[in-house]
Amino acid sequence: MFDDRSPIYLQIADGIKNDVLSGALKEDEQVMSTNQYAAFYRINPATAAKGFAQLVDEGVLYKKRGIGMFVSPDAREKLRAARRERFFTEVVDPMLAEAKRVGIGVDEIVRHVGGAR
Amino acid sequence: MIELRDLTVRYGSTVAVDGVSLDLPTGKIYGLLGRNGSGKTSLLSALASYRRPARGSVRFDGADAFENPAVMRQTCFVRDTLDVNDSERVRGVLAVAGWLRPAWDHDYAARLVDLFELDPRKRISALSRGQRSALGAVLGLASRAPLTILDETYLGMDAVARSNFYRELLADYLVHPRTIILSTHLIEEVADLFERVIILDHGRLLLHEETDELRGRGITVTGPAAAVEAFAGGHPVLGEQSLGGVRAMTLDWRPEPADIARGEAAGLTFGPVGIQDLFIHLTSPSKRLEAIR
């Protein structure tokens, strides 16, 4: 589930963001508690709590005192906007660099993408 | 708060623990790591007041721990030897633990005995290594002591028993938070349970940090020697290897995505450094690394 590339709390935050983006977690839906999360993934609860705290800081989740944490109503929209901004620099540019290395022209890529449409 | 100040443990002229100072906030799970002979057991023995330090002190919420009954009642130290009478039976050992430990949970102990498939009628002398380890785990967990120290107790267990032990430890800690210190060298399989990691090397404190901060702390860079060296800049080098013109360096540095992109454009490849690898790099004598080159 988790790898050594980055702190687990960041991986937890990314995983939940992906669930919000894909719609697996809906607006105002309650997420697992940090203890449930820790027991499920067998990680220290402080690590899980740090991941959730980061999501609250970023406005992806909000807290209801004594009840738990929920997905913010505008979380999906905000995440989509942020990911769109990064799409060209983080996804397209590295792909074009690799295409150049192996000698695939832009025309060929366009034809392929057109076929996939 | 558990405070170790300049803690030093000596056996004759041998210094096993050398001036360790540590602040351990209570209620967390700590992993104590170190190679064989690094002083783990000596440090824990002093921490649990099983041994009087040659110098320095251990304080619990300000009170000196040594021969302090109030502190000792709160402390459960399980070591390899188990400190039990070999001619006693398992159920007798558990009964004694129940008398000695104010927070002992009989039902929980019974559940753990079942889980680890221990026979309560068996004598300690007749237990296999794995069963002895399992009994140590039961004594440690069911004591629910505010300070529970398990010194490689579980290393004799097989993979299934260890997995059960880790699951039980976490589940019980979630319901009954307390300070738990585990010493181990099976880093990879337990690291996720530790909130903090303490690394000892030759009796000295090498590192005390949040476990999660160690993930992604180091990086391995591989590629043409000149490009690797240029990328490494002045960042601390934990290890390196060369094969022909190719060089691999392990750096104690967390580069930004832009650095990675720049490196990849220069033909470098990157790999993560796990906690186990980081531990090996931090505690290997550099001479040995030189020899590999």
TrEMBL record, chain A:
MF term (GO), any: DNA binding
Transmembrane segments: none
Keyword Transcription carried by entry: yes
SMART domains with a match to the protein in the record: HTH_GNTR (SM00345)
Keywords from the named record: DNA-binding, Transcription, Transcription regulation
PROSITE patterns recorded: HTH_GNTR
HTH gntR-type domain mapped to chain residues: 6-74
Protein name (record): GntR family transcriptional regulator
UniProtKB/TrEMBL annotation, chain B:
Organism of origin: Paractinoplanes tereljensis
Parts of the chain that traverse the membrane: none
UniProt superkingdom: Bacteria
Gene3D superfamilies assigned to the protein according to its UniProt record, in alphabetical order: P-loop containing nucleotide triphosphate hydrolases
Name of protein: ABC transporter
Entry annotated with the keyword Metal-binding: no
UniProt keyword terms in alphabetical order: ATP-binding, Nucleotide-binding
Listed PROSITE patterns: ABC_TRANSPORTER_2
InterPro entries (alphabetical): AAA+_ATPase, ABC_transporter-like_ATP-bd, P-loop_NTPase
Pfam families per the UniProt record, alphabetical: ABC_tran (PF00005)
Residues covered by the ABC transporter domain: 2-227
GO molecular function, one term: ATP hydrolysis activity
